[in-house]
């Protein structure tokens, strides 16, 4: 590739981007004897082995990267049913939802990356100041970081391990993947499937809980990508600081919804219910609570009841479209929040099957327990405010959310919310769906996280953008 900069450039400098070399290990050759190396090796040995593979340079070739992405894709198409079954075991996840939100979701991310990777990786020319002479040129090029650790949570335990891995592998890194122990069936399925489709010298799966993750985190990585809660986010960042390792923290928090006066509440309720009760409310960007004026709140209550019944019937426990709470600890935590307001719809639960009905609470005091923590379950409180000014203050008085949603017909309201609040993402008229736009950066700000990924943003996250200046000798 030839880069010439700064108007009339008599000389150009040839850039030789990482030379394409064939992947040394074809992913399908390994299907014969899938081995989860993590069982017999210490974390230090795993990282050393992956670093040695990285040092050979083979992970840098476009061929290796695309082979890994195709391997992942094959894993998802051939092993999709196994993963869907595991997700059902762990979270009662309906099969359609498992495909929509985790399996096909990751396939879309892979296809998008495969389509654009060469263009994303192309060096980018930048202007050179005249003082360096007309024959100088400058550009940036992406270097892989090295060995990357991806730590996933339990709520989308396949998708939130694999989607970051797409970016890490596409960027030419070796990867240690750590699934969540709180979704044990999915963790086991991933530990079995991944080594059968990927280059096992450069990709390892380490299963386990706090002790295993703590031991892993003591190792030197070149990037740590963590998805989960802020308390553990702090532990991850502290451990990474020991090695000056950069981190991406995909955290959570309370994502508010503002419903303006005069909006079509049937549409609002249907979209709110879909976004909130997906995965039984265990979604990091689920609407956490609703802010609206008292009159709108009164009209929204019956609309939400109708929306819940339309989606899950009058007995959601028998619906094939509704998931379960991940474990009894979270079931107990959530049922403890049900007393924070007047039950509009739902309010029931069954500990044995970890079922909690899609629930809407009204007359909720801003200081009540349900408003003091991220709900992360199927409970939607409605908090009343006088109007937009108070809603903006309400949001700004609290931690910066991962997502903020606004239902309004008013451009002025839209502009004010965008200008006067800070959140990881902002959705007008449709909660949760911004995560499906692959070229939008997905991530939080402040307490909801740092860094982002998806699409080409993943290349930024998992690469070093190297600055290069070149001036010919003659
Ligand atoms: P979790 O309990 O599965 O933990 C996440 C990971 O951290 C696991 O792999 C676990 O093994 C590890 N871990 C737990 N305790 C640890 C410790 N003491 N030391 C080292 N590692 C430890 O998941 P979670 O945190 O309960 O997930 C829910 C949270 O994640 C919510 O706050 C949610 O909003 C957030 N979340 C954010 C996103 C996002 O993309 N921003 C996505 C999903 C979930």
Number of helices: 14
Provide the residue-averaged pLDDT.
92
Number of strands: 20
- Overall form: globular
**Small-molecule binders:** nicotinamide-adenine-dinucleotide
Oligomer: single chain
Q: What portion of residues is helical?
A: 25-40%
Distance between the termini: 20 Å
Largest sheet: 7 strands, mixed
Strand order, sheet with most strands: 12-15-16-11-10-17-18
Uncertain spans, ≥5 residues at pLDDT below 50?
1-38
Radius of gyration: 24 Å
Structural class of the secondary elements? Answer: alpha/beta
Strand content of the residues, in percent?
15-25%
Structure description:
There is one protein chain. With 474 residues, the chain is of the alpha/beta class. Helices cover 38% and strands 17% of the residues. The chain contains 14 helices and 20 strands. The strands form 5 sheets. The protein has a 7-stranded mixed beta sheet, with helices on both faces. A 6-stranded mixed beta sheet has the order 7-6-5-8-9-19, with helices on both faces. Strands 3-4-20 form a 3-stranded antiparallel beta sheet. Mean pLDDT is 92; it is low at 1-38. The protein binds nicotinamide-adenine-dinucleotide (NAD). Nicotinamide-adenine-dinucleotide (NAD) binds at residues 151-155, 160, 178, 180-182, 209-210, 213-214, 227-229, 232, 235, 250-252, 284, 374, 376, 402, 444, 449. Nicotinamide-adenine-dinucleotide is lined by residues 151-155, 160, 178, 180-182, 209-210, 213-214, 227-229, 232, 235, 250-252, 284, 374, 376, 402, 444, 449.
């Amino acid at each position: 590739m030839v880069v010439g900069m700064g108007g009339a450039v008599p000389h150009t400098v040839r850039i030789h981007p990482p030379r394409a070399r064939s992947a040394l290990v074809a992913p399908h050759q390994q299907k014969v004897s899938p081995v989860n190396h993590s069982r017999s090796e210490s974390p230090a040995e795993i990282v050393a082995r992956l670093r040695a593979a990285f040092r050979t340079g083979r992970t840098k070739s476009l061929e290796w990267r695309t082979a890994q992405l195709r391997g992942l894709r094959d894993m998802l198409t051939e092993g999709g049913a196994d993963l869907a079954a595991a997700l059902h075991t762990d979270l009662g996840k309906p099969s359609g939802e498992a495909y929509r939100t985790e399996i096909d979701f990751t396939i879309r991310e892979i296809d998008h990356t495969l389509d654009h990777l060469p263009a994303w990786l192309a060096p980018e020319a930048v202007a050179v100041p005249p003082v360096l002479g007309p024959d100088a040129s400058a550009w940036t090029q992406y270097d892989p970081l090295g060995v990357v650790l991806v730590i996933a949570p339990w709520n989308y335990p396949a998708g939130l391990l694999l989607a970051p891995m797409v970016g890490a592998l596409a960027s030419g890194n070796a990867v240690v993947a750590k699934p969540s122990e709180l979704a044990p069936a999915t963790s086991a399925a991933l530990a079995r499937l991944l080594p059968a489709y990927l280059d096992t010298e450069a990709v390892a799966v380490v299963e386990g809980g706090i002790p295993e993750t703590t031991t892993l985190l003591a190792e030197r990585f070149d990037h740590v990508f963590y998805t989960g809660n802020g308390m553990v986010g702090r532990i991850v960042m502290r451990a990474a600081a020991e090695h000056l390792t950069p981190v991406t923290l995909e955290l959570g928090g309370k994502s508010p919804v503002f419903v303006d006066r005069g909006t079509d509440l049937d549409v609002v309720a249907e979209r709110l219910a879909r976004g909130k009760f997906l995965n039984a409310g265990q979604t990091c960007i689920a609407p956490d609570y609703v802010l609206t004026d008292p009159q709108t709140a009164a009209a929204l209550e019956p609309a939400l009841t109708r929306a819940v019944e339309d989606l899950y019937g009058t007995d959601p426990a028998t619906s094939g479209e509704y998931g379960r709470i991940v474990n009894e600890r979270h079931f107990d935590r959530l049922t403890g929040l049900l007393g924070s307001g007047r039950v509009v719809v739902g309010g029931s639960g069954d500990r044995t099957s970890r079922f909690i009905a899609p629930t809407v609470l009204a007359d909720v005091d801003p200081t009540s327990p349900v408003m003091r923590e991220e709900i992360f379950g199927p409970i939607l409180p409605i908090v009343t405010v006088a109007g937009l000014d108070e809603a903006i203050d309400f949001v700004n008085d609290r931690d910066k959310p991962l997502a903020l949603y606004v239902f309004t017909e008013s451009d002025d309201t839209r502009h004010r919310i965008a200008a006067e609040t800070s959140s990881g993402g902002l959705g007008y008229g449709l909660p949760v769906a911004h995560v499906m736009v692959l070229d939008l950066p997905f991530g939080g700000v402040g307490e909801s996280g740092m860094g982002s990924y998806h699409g080409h943003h993943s290349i930024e996250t998992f690469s070093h953008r190297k600055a290069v200046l070149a001036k010919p000798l003659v």
